[in-house]
Amino acid sequence: MEFIVKEQDSIKVQCLYYGNKRENMVSGFLQLHYGDIITISNHGKFVFDVGWFIFITINESTKEFVFFRDLEAAIHSKKLESCIDVILDYSLSTFYLDKSLVNRNKELFLSLSNKLSESSFLFHRITNKFPAENQT
Length: 136
Hints:
Blueprint: E1 2-5, E2 11-18, E3 26-32, E4 37-47, E5 51-58, E6 62-67, H1 68-76, E7 80-82, H2 83-102, H3 106-126
Protein name: IDEAL domain-containing protein
InterPro entries: IDEAL_dom
Domain IDEAL: 87-116
């Protein structure tokens, strides 16, 4: 499943490099940046006394085992959102923006155009119109 980082500040996640117990675990931290596309796989590793680390791919290049609770916390706090939800939100906002123009509803138009300007970068990142190195 694909997600996109919506947090303007980066998200810090713990990565597993080696080990199956807390005593021999070698880990580090990784920053997920605004606009990064995260593909979460169904492959994981369990570290005793710590928990699950899930295999992810970042922008189709970097591959890491990331602590599941870090991902879960980012999803629940809306710092990380599914790409489908971002596309749907953008499409609905565009539809209602067009409708507000037809109905000449200035307040709705202004609020939706602000929302669209914020979400357009994420939408275009998902649809591959902006490469990863052109992030703001």
